[in-house]
Amino acid sequence: MAATVLVAGGLGYIGSHTSVELIKKDFNVIVADNLSNSEFFILERIEQITGVKPIFFNVDLTDKIKTAEIFSQHPVDVVIHFAAYKSVSESVKEPLKYFHNNLSSLINIIECMKDAKVSKLIFSSSATVYGQPEKLPVTESTPFQKALSAYGSTKQMGEEILEKLTAAGIINAVSLRYFNPVGAHGSALMGELPIGIPNNLFPYVMQTGAGGLEQLTVYGNDYDTPDGSCLRDYIHVVDLAKAHVMACDRLFQQKNETSCEVFNIGTGKPTSVLEIIKVFERCTGVKLNYKIGDRREGDAAVVYADITKANKVLGWKAELELDEMIKSSWKWELSVRQS
Ligand code: WQD
What we know:
alpha/beta; 7-stranded parallel β-sheet; 11 helices; 13 strands; 16% strand
């Protein structure tokens, strides 16, 4: 009997790519999304790619009554919780919005799971929990630094909530700590849809290259790195989606070794901002208009993952390289501009 997965935030960037990969592996997918940071047309795109249109609930997870209705209408085996706000800079300006949305949606969905006797949860965590790590690459036991933003706090607190709830036997959880998700589906039917001016590097590069933005500012080239610009661990969103499928299977088949597991999901390869620009220009043939500016408040100089545990225990390894991350993002950017 195929497992049914409730993908909360399933029309969002990572949620939609995960829904596609789950359907490809014959999971039944139910999508819940309040469309606050996603577009309804993505549901049709999921169908266009897979031939399957997931059951859809337009639900805000901070509304417990509406969230509970999902569980009363459909048997759910595993829940993946993507439905959180994720802008670091916005969370600094509006911390209460982030604490309310990200924490109450997590607590609500777990209370609904408990009432519906659903015990398997995958939590969307982030490398942000590490702050600026002292030792690199970061492993899952690298201690958390004090979160630099409310967004980072909600991910640290989310993991702490799971630690206590799993210890109390209420749920079994797998937290996936994403490094830098980038790229788009190879069909160019899905990808990142940032609202307004993007904060993140990849969408900013793509929109600058396509003429939607004037110029990219490289936030500092005076860091203690080979070319002076920051190093990050960029991971293709399709590889990241596949990690969620592996985690679903792990929980559904009860292969998890403890009730609360955590995995770094990255490539283990650090890449600098200036290297990203070079690869963009090589892959697209477009000369990128950029300048070197001041450092951005709160940026860590270097963050990249030790992915031994994900490779050995989860049985997952990133396959897509930087060229494909750039090319798929570029193809998506051009397709969004044509539609
Ligand atoms: C990457 C590098 C910038 C924009 C964030 C979140 C993290 C995760 C991924 C959710 C940095 C530089 C950027 C620009 C630049 N999201 N940059 N000019 O900050 O590593 O991580 O997104 O989980 O939680 O913190 O990603 O893409 O913003 O920055 O020079 O216009 O690009 O300084 O070195 P970041 P980013």
